[in-house]
Design goal:
The protein has about 220 residues and is of the alpha/beta class. Helices cover about 40% and strands about 15% of the residues. The chain has 8 helices and 7 strands. A 7-stranded mixed β-sheet has the order 3-2-1-4-6-5-7, sandwiched between helices.
């Protein structure tokens, strides 16, 4: 096993998940983003090999929730035209300023079906300096792992990030990690995580909206 320090970036939740607008209001989308973020953090921080979590965000609700869950919070830096990667790079730099040389993990913040066992397995099987977990679409990135205490994170999240990270030297990790591989951007993604079983905060939020988390209503346990 290899210990790591994780970084997440979350934008203003009121502007998030526009592709869910056909089924959820702006307020509901914000509430769902916060719930999914909470379930992701709960699952990730249950992994013993994850030594710390830094959350980079301009959103006060996300910042407050992150602190409640034991994460270090960093204000979003000026971003220009690439806010996500700028935020992740700033988070990684802050980690090493505070902790010294460290292995780094950039993790999506909307993985409501993530199991700690999936993330622990990734940390156990990853080899080489730079690894990537490609998302369920085959084009995005769920996680980027840098196992070199001096190498920069160099995040390339965004359109076709899987290809961009591979071009940057990241080796794709091949494992059955459905919860880790499914971030939620579309109604179809939400169906997938509901089938897998979402965490308790996302499940509660969906029920509040009148949606069952799944036909048989499973709730993911942190295991």
């Amino acid at each position: 096993m290899h210990t790591v320090h994780a970084v997440m970036a979350v934008k203003h939740i009121g502007r998030a998940k526009s592709r869910l607008a056909s089924m959820l209001s702006t307020e509901q989308r914000a509430q769902l983003v916060l719930a999914m973020f909470t379930d992701t953090v709960v699952a990730a921080t249950a992994v013993p090999e994850l030594l710390s979590l830094t959350v980079v965000t301009p959103d006060p609700l996300v910042a407050a929730r992150a602190r409640e869950l034991g994460a270090h919070v960093l204000d979003e830096p000026p971003a220009g035209d690439d806010p996500l990667n700028t935020a992740l790079a700033a988070g990684a730099a802050d980690v090493r300023d505070r902790h010294g040389p460290a292995h780094l993990l950039a993790l999506q913040a909307d993985l409501p079906a993530l199991r700690p066992s999936e993330l622990a397995d990734v940390l156990a099987v990853a080899v080489g300096t730079r690894s990537v977990v490609i998302d369920h679409t085959g084009t995005g990135t769920a996680a980027l792992l840098v196992r070199d205490t001096a190498a920069p994170l160099s995040p390339r999240f965004g359109a076709d990030s899987a290809h961009a990270h591979r071009d940057g030297g990241a080796a794709p990790l091949l494992g059955h990690w459905p919860g880790l591989r499914c971030d939620v951007d579309t109604p179809e993604d939400l169906d997938i995580v509901r089938a897998l079983g979402v965490g308790e905060f996302t499940a509660s939020t969906l029920r509040e909206f009148g949606f069952s988390p799944h036909r048989s209503d499973p709730v993911r346990t942190v295991c």
